[in-house]
Specification:
heterotetramer; A mainly alpha (123); B alpha+beta (294); C alpha+beta (609); D mainly alpha (141); A: 123 residues; mainly alpha; 3 helical TM bundles of succinate and fumarate reductases; 5 helices; 81% helix; elongated; D: 141 residues; disordered N terminus; binds flavin-adenine dinucleotide; binds protoporphyrin IX containing FE; binds iron/sulfur cluster; binds FE3-S4 cluster
Chain lengths: 123, 294, 609, 141
């Protein structure tokens, strides 16, 4: 099957994932904004309230997924933009891995925060 | 003997010899009318000239790497008498033939089929021969296509564009010919309709010049080449196997995924080819195709 | 110096087909063209390609129609070759992917065209030439044939024996427009001229600005006779302000011509009682001009072509680009109003004398396409017969040049046994004014071995260019427009002796003026001023030959109408006019038409439609 | 493609005047996308104060004196932050609307109306932003 796989390049897959994550983000970001600015007002934020939400498994997992997709979508978007402007060669490889590293840090930090609220020991 | 139509010959000789013939009278009458019209027009033109409207002001980009005084790019101004129906190309030709024979631009067909004269007119990629002066604001600014190397004046180097066009294997390929020597391949009308617009490209390069992605990524195939690929990928005469290969070509690193749907290409194409639509359709085809394997 | 087996000059339909054929026959081919191939004027052809494809049709009928259309001045072996091979060539185009319009059953569509007894014109919308040109260029790309684009061929490299029939062509000299460099192209097996039309001889033309007849003029000066130059087709439906062509397809689909009084004059004034608008082009052109001359024209200039009754759907389906043309170039909306049209120069039936394999009298020199005269169109070309000519004779010339055995030619070239001298006295001196000016002259070569023939030609071209660039003088543009004006005024659809003579005098004057011509742009980069100046010389030579032919032929045949001679004179004029350059002293002579074909002998009949 | 010869005026930013809808949409989408990812990083950074807060003990949390709550409350107290949040909303809304436009484009829907849909995205973004100003500003004074 290996040869068959050569018929698609990551370009196409990434493009597709960018769209899929966009669709997901569209819903979740709307929900997120609505929840945190309209249902609960910005000046009412407190650790308690955050942690109350986070303790629900469904909310927790939605937020983690939100974080992961947003990071992927955002970082991949940035990377694409740079590549489209003619980023090539070593520079490109360096930036690529820097972005990957930044994403990993971002996601890790995000999960730790969520864990802190959810009362999960891992933070 | 006479292969000719007797009536016509007779009449045309008649008109020459007998001034009183009906045709002649009518002609004379019409001449008078035409003369009146002409007079009127001349008056109007004179008025216009007085109001300084009868000439068009052209600002033309000039550059020549070899000629002293032109090595530093500059704009030259030409005042060209306006006539009804005048195109940018007409104005340029007038300026060249009357004022400065070194004014250089490509042109040939004057009818939007050869694709030689895509230029940057008042900030848009246009075919000069297809752009009416009367539709433009004055002064009319004419520059060579952006994002291309200027050879001289309005002439740009098209080599890169040609390379991109030829990179997509722009030729029909199939292994499935009908049996008879004199048998054509069948193609239904619908399919021909589907590829129709894509076959109209005249290689003018306007689209490529307008696309920011192509400007940034020199290797991007560009809208015209992708459209060319579309023309073959969608042609059902080529068969499934070929389509697969075509999709691989346009899926390459600098292929369809580069397109950011800026729509500028579609906007400027003088042949009204829905380029963005074609690119998008190829992206979908490619994804569909890949989903089979993912 | 570049070296190839076959060098094809020009990359329009004929050149591309010739290159492909030569390459398939095993030759190393190079194409040299002053325009990038896809910019060639073949792309402008709209209407279609005639080919007897269907069972109910036959190539014999096509040949008959072509002969009749030619007013019996076509040479039967060439006409029959055209009609016999056109079907397979059209199918080949289809196999190369050309997007023809289709019928419901998926076969290629055909439509009726003027002068044809069967609807045998295959087409791709109203952009047949564009599709054909691009399809063939694609094949050239596929085969990896070398293309030198934007190289202007200035001259042929020909040996200088006294008798043109003994000369050999060893290659060409070309000027690289991009860099200003002049190079020789040595052609071991042959040079094929495919430089297209010469419409720029006139000022109201459907032809491109690049159609300056360079190949015709080069071959002429190298010693190849010009054949039937007086036969110029004027297309009846061109837009008055630009000369842009409105395809015959409009009339084929049912478009109607009206005069100012709203009369359908083709019938009502009896110009063509059977075929009406679909009569042969010369008939319709003269009818229109007669209407205008008799005061029934609109604005005293044109008539109306109306297609509104065809309905929007049909127009959009088959004639869509006509709508765009009328709107972009004339500001008329074909869906809601009739389009203004008038006759304009369209096609040159005559040209470089060749036989049915494209060979000229000079060894190793071939010609195909509009620049050549085989002759298939005789005194008048039928619509849709030029595109098949490109592919049929392009292929033949390509193969022959590459050395394929093709048998004995039946059409003769040069002065074979039955030529006939002409005793016509031109009142005006014609030909070279004074060969001493290196900028204006480009005579024959002096060597015999290939290398030095090409080398010598390069040197002369270089000298000429240097001279043009370095001296001061007048601009070519005024000379060019003087020629175009006199030609349009006097050598148009209607021709009379006195005015033709005047034209020769005007041309003489233009020649004198050309002696002072100079190029004011000193650049070596993309110097179009220089190119146009060189082209203007070609225009001059062609205009003169054309007018000479028009004066000599004292009859009315096909597209050639003479005021003083209102009938076709078969006893006297069933012959081709030929003009030889004779190193600057043009000479007129004749050769008989070949009416015996393989199929039958074509008896001249009255040409009524 | 010219890298070697810079034509100044023609190829520099002076060209923005000549951009059409599709190009503006592209530029705005880019800009908003970058702002959003930038914000995502800062957002997580700010929220991370929740980690020390969680370690600081129940009491502080209950009283609302933990680092996290304090940080958020003080930030939200600043008018500037509130205004930035309105900006963020505008950016996010535009990116979402135009993103939807792009997704439809990818599906081949509404290509002919691409300019109109861009203008619609702009107008809607404006409307939504203005409409939510009261909510966003509420309690800031
Ligand atoms: C508007 C229009 C519509 C037509 N419609 C039809 C139709 O419907 N059906 C039909 O059968 N016929 C039609 N014709 C006629 C037909 O299109 C032409 O006769 C034919 O295309 C000529 O092709 P060609 O290959 O001989 O020349 P072209 O296509 O004109 O090519 C000439 C080539 O020679 C090159 N060249 C010229 N001079 C030089 C030089 N000095 N050095 C190097 N290269 C040179 C040019 O670059 C070009 O590549 C139409 C013609 C016109 C003008
Ligand atoms: C809410 C729903 C969202 C939708 C519908 C959406 C849609 C899209 C789409 C379709 C693209 C691809 C553009 C292209 O490649 O042509 C894109 C790019 C991008 N998105 Fe989003 N997006 C959303 C949310 C987000 C979020 C939350 C972020 C930040 C984390 C983000 C950051 C980006 C970035 C940085 C780009 C790349 C921009 C560029 O081309 O420079 N998006 N978005
Ligand atoms: S797609 Fe349109 S704009 Fe692009 S090269 Fe072809 S005709 Fe020109
Ligand atoms: S302008 Fe460029 S980005 Fe895509 S839609 Fe056209 S190719
Ligand atoms: S001159 Fe041929 S496209 Fe404009």
């Amino acid at each position: 099957m290996a040869e068959r796989y050569s018929s698609f390049q990551s370009g196409g897959r990434m493009w597709f994932l960018q769209r899929v994550t966009a669709v997901f983000l569209l819903v979740v970001l709307a929900f997120h904004f609505f929840l945190l600015h309209f249902v609960h007002h910005a000046d009412e934020v407190s650790f308690l309230a955050s942690s109350a939400r986070m303790e629900q498994l469904s909310y927790y997992s939605l937020m983690i997924l939100f974080l992961v997709t947003a990071t992927f979508h955002g970082v991949n978007g940035v990377y694409n933009a740079l590549v489209n402007q003619g980023l090539t060669g070593t520079k490109r490889t360096v930036i690529k891995w820097t972005l990957v590293a930044a994403s990993v840090v971002l996601i890790a930090q995000g999960i730790r925060t969520a864990n802190a609220w959810a009362g999960i020991g891992l933070y | 003997m006479s292969t000719q139509i007797p009536k016509q010959t007779e009449e045309s000789t008649e008109t020459e010899t007998e001034p009183a013939s009906k045709g002649d009278e009518r002609r004379a009458e019409k001449r008078r009318r035409a003369a009146e019209r002409r007079e009127q027009r001349q008056e109007e033109e004179a008025e216009k000239a007085a109001a300084d409207e009868s000439t068009v002001e052209l600002k033309v980009f000039r550059y020549d790497p070899q000629v002293e005084g032109k090595q530093e790019p500059r704009f030259d101004t030409f005042h060209v008498p306006f006539t009804k129906g005048m195109t940018v190309l007409d104005a340029l030709m007038y300026a060249r033939d009357t004022y400065d024979s070194s004014l250089t631009f490509r042109h040939s067909c004057r009818q939007a089929v050869c694709g030689s004269d895509a230029m940057f007119v008042n900030g848009g990629q246009k075919l000069a021969c297809k752009t009416q002066i009367s539709d433009l604001d004055e002064p009319v600014r004419v520059e060579p296509l952006p994002h291309a190397e200027v050879t001289k004046d309005l002439v740009v180097d098209m080599e890169h564009f040609y390379d991109q066009m030829e990179a997509v294997e722009p030729y029909f390929q199939t292994n499935e010919y009908p049996d008879g020597e004199l048998e054509e391949q069948r193609q239904d009308r619908e399919n021909r309709e589907k590829i129709k617009m894509s076959t109209r490209c005249i290689w003018c390069g306007a689209c490529m010049s307008s696309c920011n992605i192509a400007a940034g990524d020199n290797e991007y195939l560009g809208p015209a080449a992708i459209n060319k690929a579309y023309r073959f990928a969608m042609d059902e005469r080529e068969g499934e196997e070929m389509k697969q290969k075509r999709l691989e070509i346009i899926e390459q690193e600098h292929g369809v995924w580069r397109c950011q749907t800026q729509f500028s290409c579609t906007e400027v194409c003088p042949k009204d080819i829905p380029l963005t639509e074609h690119i998008q359709e190829l992206k979908r085809e490619a994804v569909k195709n890949n989903l089979k394997f993912w | 110096m570049h070296e190839h087996d076959v060098v094809v000059v020009g990359a329009g339909g004929a050149g591309l087909r010739a290159a492909i054929a030569a390459q398939e026959a095993g030759a190393d081919v190079a194409m040299v063209s002053k325009l990038h191939p896809v910019r060639s004027h073949t792309g402008a052809a709209e209407g279609g390609i005639n080919a007897a494809l269907r069972d109910a049709d036959s190539w014999q009928d096509h040949a008959y129609d072509t002969m009749k259309g030619s007013d019996y001045l076509g040479d039967a072996p060439a006409v029959e070759a055209l009609c016999q091979e056109s079907p397979e060539e059209v199918i080949r185009l289809e196999h190369w992917g050309m997007p023809f319009s289709r019928e419901d059953d998926g076969r290629v569509s055909q439509r009726p065209f003027g002068g044809l007894s069967f609807p045998r014109t295959t087409y791709a919308g109203a952009e047949t030439g564009h599709q054909m040109l691009h399809t063939m260029y694609e094949q050239v790309v596929k085969r990896g044939i070398t293309v030198y684009d934007e190289w202007h061929v200035m001259d042929l490299a020909v040996t200088d024996e006294d008798d043109p029939a003994e000369r050999t062509c060893h290659g060409v000299v070309a000027y690289d427009i991009q860099s200003g460099e002049i190079s020789g192209f040595r052609a071991k097996d042959g040079v094929i001229l495919a430089t297209g039309g010469m419409g720029q001889v006139f000022d109201h033309t459907t032809n491109a600005v690049a159609n300056t007849g360079d190949g015709v003029a080069m071959a002429y000066r190298a010693g190849v006779p010009m054949e039937d130059m007086e036969f110029i087709q004027f297309h009846p439906t061109t837009l008055p302000s630009t000369g842009v062509l409105i395809s015959e397809g409009v009339r084929g689909e049912g478009g109607i011509l009206y005069n100012e009084d709203g009369e359908r004059f083709m019938f009502e004034h009896g110009y063509a009682n059977n075929d009406g608008e679909l009569a042969s082009r010369d008939v319709v052109s003269r009818a229109e001009l007669t209407e205008v001359n008799e005061g029934r024209g609109i604005e005293d200039e044109y008539v109306h072509l109306d297609m509104r009754h065809l309905g929007e759907e049909r127009i959009l389906d088959r004639l869509e680009n006509i709508l765009h043309l009328a709107e972009d170039f004339e500001g008329a909306d074909g869906l809601t109003e009739p389009m203004p049209v008038k006759p304009g120069q369209h096609y040159a039936m005559g040209g470089i004398e060749t036989n049915e394999f494209g060979e000229t009298v000079i060894d190793g020199l071939y010609a195909a396409g509009e620049c050549a005269c085989a002759s298939v169109h005789g005194a008048n070309r039928l619509g849709g017969n030029a595109l098949p000519e490109l592919i049929v004779f392009g292929k033949r010339a390509g193969r022959h040049a590459a050395g394929e055995e093709m048998g004995e030619a039946e059409v003769t070239t040069g002065r074979s046994s039955d030529w006939e001298p002409a005793d016509y006295e031109f009142g005006v001196e014609v030909g070279e004014t004074d060969g001493s000016d290196p900028a204006a002259a480009d005579g024959g070569a002096v060597a015999t071995d290939a290398e030095s023939v090409v080398g010598g030609a390069v040197d002369r071209a270089q000298e000429r260019v240097d001279e043009l660039l370095s001296r001061k003088g007048r601009n070519h543009a005024e000379i060019r427009s003087a020629v175009q004006e006199t030609m349009t005024a006097n050598v148009n659809v209607f021709r009379e002796e006195g005015r033709l003579e005047e034209t020769l005098a005007d041309l003489r004057e233009a020649r004198e003026a050309y002696k002072d011509v100079a190029v004011s742009d000193p650049s070596r980069t993309f110097n179009t001023d220089l190119i146009h100046t060189i082209e203007t010389r070609n225009i001059l030579d062609i205009a003169e030959a054309l007018t000479m032919g028009a004066l000599a032929r004292e009859e009315f045949r096909g597209a050639h109408w003479r005021k003083e001679h209102q009938e076709r004179k078969d006893e006297e004029w069933l012959k081709h006019t030929l003009i030889s350059w004779n190193d600057g002293e043009p000479e007129l002579w004749y050769k008989p038409v070949v009416l015996e074909g393989e199929n039958k002998t074509y008896e001249p009949k009255s040409r009524s439609y | 493609m010219s890298q070697s010869y810079n034509r100044g005026l023609i190829e520099d930013f002076g060209r923005w005047r000549e951009f059409e809808a599709g190009m503006w949409a592209w530029i705005f989408h880019k800009f908003t996308g970058w702002v959003l990812i930038g914000y995502l990083f800062t957002h997580i950074a700010v929220l991370s104060t929740g980690i020390p807060a969680a370690g600081a003990g129940e009491a502080a949390i209950a009283a609302g004196t933990d680092v996290y709550t304090q940080t958020i409350v003080s930030l939200e107290g600043l008018l500037l932050v509130r205004l930035l949040e309105v900006g963020l909303l505008a950016v996010a809304v535009f990116h979402m609307l135009n993103g939807t436009r792009l997704l439809l484009t990818d599906l081949g829907i509404g290509l002919d109306a691409q300019d109109k849909s861009f203008y619609a995205s702009l107008i809607l973004t404006g409307a939504i932003t203005v409409a939510s100003v009261p909510t966003f500003i509420a309690g800031a004074f």
